[in-house]
Amino acid sequence: MKEKEVLLVLTDEWADWEASHAIVGVNDSLAYVVKTIAIDKNPKTSIGGLRTEIDYEFENYHRFDTLAMVVLTGSFSWNEKKHDVVADFIKKVVDAKIPIAAICGGTRFLAKHGFLNHVQHTGNSLKYFKEILKDEERYTGQDFFVATQVMSDGGIITAVDTASVEFAYEIFKTLAVDEREDIDDWYNKFKMA
Fold it and tell me: How many domains does one find in the chain?
């Protein structure tokens, strides 16, 4: 039985393609299983129409001793106030020094709540961060923004919306889901296709 969990944070209208490579690779590993977590147990429907069951609710999750990583995808609903409870959960994850991976709107959510203020990070663009977050005083990390596909720093992986392969690659390396040579081979195969 796999002992470590990787939690996929789901909201309604989550971007299913952004984490697809990562989900498959992590679940295929011998050590990890992907589980879903959300603000409630209601199934969440992705932008692509996938209806996904929820394993855990944020308020009832206490398995930090077996938690290996938290993954946030993009979503059309990250702006909704009800998702602020996710920030409280992410704070616990950061305090426990558990890695976090965010792509597209997930990076914006982390920025909005101040989690990217002291780590190098990326996102769809700095202009995107500034426009969306202009009224959010908690984002002061502009000097740490790097215009690149993916960035990993201080236990936080961030990626732009077009970098699902690079995103998965950084997740695989962080979790050591396989031998490094095999992870590199996987990445090269997808990038050469």
Answer: 1
Other CB atoms within 10 A of residue 125 CB: 12
Which 8-state DSSP code applies to residue 144?
G
**Domain range enclosing 107:** 4-192
Global confidence as pTM: 0.94
- The residue type found at 101 is A
DSSP letter assigned to residue 81 = G
Q: Distance between the two ends of the chain, CA-based, in angstroms?
A: 34
> Which H or E element spans position 22?
helix 20-28
Question: Are 122 and 151 a contacting pair, CB within 8 Å?
Answer: yes
The CATH number of whichever domain residue 108 belongs to comes to 3.40.50.880
Q: What is the spatial distance between Cα 132 and Cα 137, in angstroms, rounded to a whole number?
A: 12
**pLDDT of 134-192, one tens digit each?**
666 678 888 999 999 999 999 999 999 999 999 999 999 999 999 999 999 999 998 87
